[in-house]
């Protein structure tokens, strides 16, 4: 992979970031690595100082004249901050990273704000834990960055936001605010609720059940660690699009519950099988590496629970010329061994297994 930080920045001029949390600080870190002057502002003085200490940018000065303003604040204040930044910096293009696009857009229209220099956007990236302390310069690499332009958006303004997205290593995608909110309701907002509902079942679970939890459960509930305060705002703002997805999910779940009440009833087993098969079809549509709908072959390697094992595995895979398309790690409580599930191209699977075994690695599953 080429080093994105070595390429000249596409975005021109200084970039002001309002909101120095996870997304804002990550944007700052990535753009500073390309030599861009980053101006940070945050309603919380301590959050601002922390982001500056981590190297995400500098404090604002009265003479600042940014070319781009990126607003990274909670959804319930996004529209107000957009309006204020448009007024404060009349030469800047203003964008935001809120995960709901239609509500702030409508609010600004109702207030009569001139939106010529405003372009809503949303990077589909994040982590379970927020704040500048969790920021990463590579947070956005390979992730979609939705840009919501309208018919009045001038080309020069669009090029600044597209340049920003490309400088961060994302894949820019144009959508209307309506399309964006409908799509994220399915692929982001509903999964958050489903993960949280499932993880909530663990609160009172017996300790024996918790000890049996494996990677499947961990994968499913990973995002359940997200901040409740933020998600109340997101789900409230996009409730109109989330509700139909939840209602369909409820209908499907009711059907499965009915089948499981008496699996001997004619058609019950088919209902269960069709549900699992539909899941197979759905997951097969998810984009793989570089946006391709490809399925990879899985190799599970046993790792001794000692320092350096994973690094050694990576080194040897490199030496035998095999690219890791995806990776999962699992460690069972009380066991002195871990599992590394390596995804590779199907055509190199057998060669990889043979080469690893010849080098002394134990393959748990082929």
UniProtKB/TrEMBL annotation:
Class of the enzyme per the UniProt entry, highest EC level: oxidoreductase
Cited Pfam families: PDH_C, PDH_N
Pathway named in the protein's UniProt entry: Amino-acid biosynthesis; L-tyrosine biosynthesis; (4-hydroxyphenyl)pyruvate from prephenate (NAD(+) route): step 1/1
Recorded family membership: Belongs to the prephenate/arogenate dehydrogenase family.
Keyword NAD in record: yes
Domain ACT: residue ranges: 298-366
Entry keyword set: Amino-acid biosynthesis, Aromatic amino acid biosynthesis, NAD, Oxidoreductase, Tyrosine biosynthesis
One example of a Gene Ontology biological process annotation: tyrosine biosynthetic process
The protein's name: Prephenate dehydrogenase
Top-rank taxon, per record: Bacteria
All copies of domain Prephenate/arogenate dehydrogenase, residue ranges: 13-290
EC number from the UniProt entry: 1.3.1.12
Database matches in NCBIfam families: PRK06545.2-3, PRK06545.2-4
GO molecular function (one): prephenate dehydrogenase (NADP+) activity
Catalytic activity: prephenate + NAD(+) = 3-(4-hydroxyphenyl)pyruvate + CO2 + NADH
InterPro entries found in the cross-reference section: 6-PGluconate_DH-like_C_sf, ACT-like_dom_sf, ACT_dom, NAD(P)-bd_dom_sf, PDH_C, PDH_N, Preph/Arog_dehydrog, Prephen_DH
Source organism of this protein record: Plantibacter flavus
